[in-house]
């Protein structure tokens, strides 16, 4: 998989990650509009890092490119997501003892509540050879808390308001591959500075006010400097643990599975990240690689969608090969399966009149269709076509349940594939466009082969194609970000590949929904 816009260099592949693929993540050119919109994307990344979510870089306006799938991720993601997450954060209480003149004071600070957050400046960039840099500048926050003090003379308690301003954080996290082919992230560096911390007590005696106000400002300033980077490190470790739990071998359905493990560590450049992925679709339990390789393709350079996902014909070819090896394209049509019409020798006589002498009594007909080679896939402008070559054998089922051979022939079919995205999956429905039949052998004399061709064309449309579509009905899961779904996906066909344009819908862990594409 390769992330990247118009440049070519990825070779083909498929859903989730792709056979010997490369994924490049590139910041796309900034969209027209006010700067705060761009800053919101980085804010979302910082939030994801703090929340242990998916890889932050994927949420920026980036391009992903891979041998079978190209990915360009998020364009405008609101800074409000970061604010909402911070507002819901909880903080532990802390206690201590200090001396005020000759009096020892025991104190407890508890029930921290974040009342307001302002993050006016954020940025993100790639660090060649390392990973991703995220920074927040000139941030501020207002926090409420309760205080309680106790001395041998008195007890007192109340509340206070904490104002933090000119907060600057710069973090760099390294991306790599672990021994099992998972993406791994590690905190490389963290820099922090806090301009000022101001405490205003709402209640309490004057001497306690003087003690607590001055002491708390220094103590909180010190604790923030000591713990913010440690907390960020912990969150990134949680994110890394989640990435390591992700399955690199995913079962698609009862017939196929996909391997999307990394085959090498990500290569980080100034403008993009390359991820080389395995990404091959296999029959379930059979990991024989396809006898073909992906071809280069690229993503468009311009567009307003948040996410761009490119899928090359390589993925479809590896998928159809996997289903061919699994026998999905082999269909036996019996009386039970052909319930949409009465398939009997009496009906067949209308197309092969000579059959009346061979089978004078009306009997059910049995058709065995088999693909003799893997389907050939072609992606052209606004068109997806499959060519399937196969054979057909026709039998009569006699009253004693034995079968009587009638004829055998070869088939060549042209099938149109209609592609849609439904619930995070690429769904393929099939429509027969043309069928050619050639007779190989027959137990009865044929007067017009074209009549049999018409019958087989009707049978494929009414029975065979729906049966195959039903087997493929679960679709192919598309790569997605944590807690997100696709909004209004549109598929554009191109020669050798297709591109999915879509916005993103974000669902908070607590259940609230937010359409990210609505943010400015």
The stretches of 5 or more residues where confidence is low (pLDDT under 50) are 1-78, 514-520
What fraction, in percent, of the residue positions are helical?
10-25%
What is the beta-strand fraction? 35-45%
Q: Determine the structural class based on helices, strands and strand pairing.
A: alpha+beta
Assembly form of the protein: single chain
Average pLDDT works out at 75
The count of β-strands is 26
Largest sheet: 7 strands, antiparallel
Provide a count of the helices. 7
Give the overall shape: elongated
Kindly provide the radius of gyration, computed on alpha-carbon positions and rounded to a whole number of angstroms.
32 Å
What gap, in angstroms, lies between the N and C termini?
A: 30 Å
Secondary structure layout plus pairing:
Blueprint lengths: L1 E2 L17 E7 L7 H17 L10 E4 L3 E4 L7 H8 L6 E7 L2 E16 L2 E7 L3 E20 L4 E23 L5 E19 L4 H40 L3 E3 L4 E4 L7 E2 L4 E5 L2 E4 L23 E6 H13 L5 E3 L11 H4 L6 H4 L6 E7 L4 E5 L2 E15 L5 E20 L2 E18 L6 H23 L4 E2 L6 E11 L2 E11 L5 E3 L5
Antiparallel strand pairs: 1-3, 2-3, 2-14, 4-16, 5-6, 6-8, 7-8, 8-9, 9-10, 11-12, 12-15, 13-14, 16-25, 17-18, 18-20, 19-20, 20-21, 21-22, 22-23, 24-25, 25-26
Helix pairs in contact: 1-2
Pick out its properties.
520 residues, six-stranded antiparallel beta sheet, 26 strands, 21% helix, elongated
Please tell me about this protein's structure.
- With 520 residues, this protein is of the alpha+beta class.
- The strands form five sheets. Strands 17, 18, 19, 20, 21, 22 and 23 form a seven-stranded antiparallel beta sheet that branches. Strands 5, 6, 7, 8, 9 and 10 form a six-stranded antiparallel beta sheet that branches. Strands 1-3-2-14-13 form a five-stranded antiparallel beta sheet, with no helix packed on it.
- Helix 1 runs parallel beside helix 2.
- The longest helix is centred in the middle third of the chain and has 40 residues.
């Amino acid at each position: 998989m390769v992330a990247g816009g118009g440049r070519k260099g990825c070779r083909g592949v498929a859903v989730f990650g792709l056979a010997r693929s490369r994924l490049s993540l590139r910041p796309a050119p900034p969209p027209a509009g006010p700067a705060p919109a761009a800053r919101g994307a980085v804010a979302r990344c910082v939030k994801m890092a703090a929340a242990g979510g998916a890889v932050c870089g994927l949420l920026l306006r980036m391009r992903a490119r891979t041998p079978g799938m190209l990915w360009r991720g998020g364009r405008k993601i609101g800074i409000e997501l970061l604010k909402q997450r911070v507002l819901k954060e909880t903080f532990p209480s802390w206690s201590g003892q200090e001396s005020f003149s000759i009096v020892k004071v025991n104190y407890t600070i508890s029930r921290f509540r974040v009342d307001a957050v302002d993050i006016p400046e954020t940025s993100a960039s790639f660090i060649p050879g390392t990973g991703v840099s995220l920074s927040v500048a000139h941030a501020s926050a207002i926090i409420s808390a309760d205080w309680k003090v106790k001395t041998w003379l008195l007890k007192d308690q109340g509340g206070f308001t904490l104002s933090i301003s000119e907060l600057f954080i710069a973090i760099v996290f390294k991306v790599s591959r672990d021994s099992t082919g998972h993406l791994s992230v590690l905190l490389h560096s963290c820099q922090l500075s806090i301009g000022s911390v101001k405490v205003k007590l709402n209640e309490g005696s004057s001497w306690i006010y003087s003690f607590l106000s001055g002491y708390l400002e220094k103590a909180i300033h010190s604790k923030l400097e000591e713990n913010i980077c440690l907390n960020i490190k912990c969150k990134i470790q949680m994110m890394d643990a989640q990435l390591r739990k992700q399955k690199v071998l995913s079962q698609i359905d009862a017939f196929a599975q996909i391997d999307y493990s990394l085959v090498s560590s990500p290569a980080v450049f100034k403008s993009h990240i390359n991820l080389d992925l395995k990404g091959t679709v296999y029959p379930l339990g059979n990991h024989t690689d396809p006898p073909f390789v992906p071809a280069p393709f690229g993503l468009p350079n311009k567009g307003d969608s948040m996410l761009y996902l490119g899928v090359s014909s390589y993925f479809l070819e590896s998928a159809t090969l996997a289903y061919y090896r699994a026998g999905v394209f082999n269909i036996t049509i019996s009386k039970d399966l052909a319930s949409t019409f009465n398939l009997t020798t009496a009906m067949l006589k209308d197309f092969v009149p000579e059959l009346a002498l061979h089978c004078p009594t009306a009997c059910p007909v049995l058709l065995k269709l088999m693909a003799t080679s893997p389907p050939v896939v072609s992606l052209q402008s606004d068109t997806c076509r499959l060519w399937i070559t196969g054979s057909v054998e026709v039998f009569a089922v006699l009253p004693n349940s034995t079968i009587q051979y009638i004829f055998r022939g070869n088939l060549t079919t042209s099938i149109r594939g209609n592609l849609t995205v439904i619930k995070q999956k690429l769904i393929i429905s099939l429509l027969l466009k043309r069928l050619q039949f050639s007779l190989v052998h027959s137990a009865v004399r044929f007067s017009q082969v074209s009549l049999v061709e018409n019958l087989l064309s009707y049978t494929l449309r009414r029975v065979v194609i729906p049966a195959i579509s039903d087997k493929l009905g679960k679709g192919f899961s598309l790569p997605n970000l944590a807690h997100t779904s696709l909004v209004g996906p549109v598929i554009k066909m191109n020669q050798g590949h297709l591109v999915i344009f879509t916005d993103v819908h974000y669902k908070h862990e607590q259940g609230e929904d937010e359409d990210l594409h609505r943010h400015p």
